[in-house]
Design goal:
Chain lengths: ~260, ~140
């Protein structure tokens, strides 16, 4: 009997017998790794990290690196280029081609890192937890030495699966497993399931700011490496707040009807 | 700025109403959630009316304004704005706009001529002006 079937059988038995204490964690990697929050994991001896990202941060809007976009663009593959041209053609006539976040689809990686709203980061010895205020979207970047899950167990998600390692004074974060469903690098540029994002975090100015160099590859959508660096400033008097995109509310916005949904 | 009642319907301008359209008099809308392709940032239109609804929400705030047109018919206009995080920096509070308030709105119109637009500024009944344009820290260009 497959594992999932055993779970179903346990659940049915527990229901029949009135057992209330059975725990069935509904996660794809249940039992595979020591939890990032397990005391045994947190207390393992590790070298002191070179910096602590814990804080609230705002991305600096920099026209040189593309404001909220990643510029310059790499050489797009024909399919992606055709999508971008379609986006640009619609934009010329005041329409938005497939503005999925405008209909409450998640931004996903890496676009989630580039909005106006601040980002909250909590750094632990085993994990860096990053929450964007926008959509209250969360990344769990495991730094406890675990690998990415095997492909067979990978669940394709908007933010992907992230693991981090320290290289000198840089935190290198590796993200795979991002869905290609309604997921865009930025307006008009789609993502594929082969998308691979490497971020190199470096602390600046004694902890007042950090920069992230994004290196993105996706052989289905562009050639070679797409690189871009964004800078984030520490916010001493800002905390993130609830931010939930509600489709019914978005549909009431005047811009919604200009959004070409496909 | 002079305020006026205004209404755009199917691209027609009603003669009895003074619709003020300026060329790029205000900063372009900065809607970080999604692009502002739907709005013509090179134009602003002014409407006076009564607040029907004001949603103080992320990612966008929404103002529904009831405006009487030249035929005496009241029509609703929907104006999209940034979320509270940006509006508070410009002096807004949750109850800056309450149903029944008489206000004048400056907006970037929709390209397709539907009733509504991107909210640029509101003038309250007491004459106070509230900007809906974000105050941004921008490196690498003047803002």
């Amino acid at each position: 009997m497959k594992r999932g079937s055993w779970r179903a059988a346990y659940a049915a038995a527990a229901t029949c017998l009135g057992i209330a204490s059975l725990s069935l964690a509904q996660t794809a990697l249940d039992g595979q790794y020591l939890s990032a929050l397990a005391p045994e994991n947190l207390s393992k001896p590790r070298p002191a990290p070179p910096f602590d990202l814990t804080g609230t941060w705002d991305m600096v809007i920099d026209a040189k690196t593309g404001m909220h976009q990643f510029l310059p663009l790499p050489k797009l593959k024909p399919g992606a280029q055709a999508t971008l041209v379609k986006y640009q053609d619609y934009q010329k006539v005041g329409r938005e081609y497939r503005d999925d976040p405008g209909a409450c689809w998640p931004l996903g990686m890496p676009r989630m890192m580039t909005r106006f709203w601040p980002i909250q980061i909590i750094q632990l010895p085993t994990m860096v937890q990053l929450t964007t205020m926008f959509n209250n979207s969360v990344r769990w970047i495991y730094t406890d030495g675990r690998p990415h899950p095997p492909d067979a167990a990978l669940v394709y998600t908007y933010n992907g699966h992230s693991i981090g390692r320290w290289e000198g004074t840089t935190l290198v974060v590796d993200t795979i497993g991002m869905t290609d469903d309604h997921h865009w690098i930025q307006e008009g540029v789609p993502t594929g399931q082969k998308l691979h994002v490497v971020e190199r975090y470096r602390m600046l100015e004694g902890g007042k700011a950090f920069e992230v160099e994004f290196t993105m590859t996706d052989p289905d959508n562009w050639e070679g490496e797409w690189k871009n660096t964004k800078r984030f400033d520490r916010q001493e008097r800002t905390d993130i707040e609830e931010h939930v995109c509600i489709y019914e509310q978005m549909r009431a916005l005047p811009s919604f009807e200009s959004n070409i949904r496909e | 700025m002079e305020s006026a009642k205004g209404s755009l319907r199917q691209g027609r301008i009603f003669g009895a109403l003074a619709i003020l359209v300026f060329a790029a008099g205000f900063a372009t809308p900065a809607l970080a959630h999604h692009s502002a392709a739907a709005f013509d940032a090179s134009k602003t239109v002014v409407y006076s009316g009564t607040v029907k609804q004001f949603l103080w929400t992320n990612p966008h705030s929404l103002l529904v304004l009831s405006v009487r047109n030249s035929d005496g018919v009241v029509e609703d206009y929907s104006f999209e704005a940034n979320g509270p995080g940006y509006l508070v920096r410009n002096g807004w509070v949750r109850e800056s706009l309450k149903p029944g308030d008489k206000v004048t709105v400056v907006s970037n119109p929709l390209f397709d001529g539907r009733r509504g637009g991107n909210l640029v500024e509101v003038t309250l009944a007491d004459g106070r002006k509230l900007s809906a344009t974000p105050q941004l820290k921008v490196e690498g260009e003047k803002q």
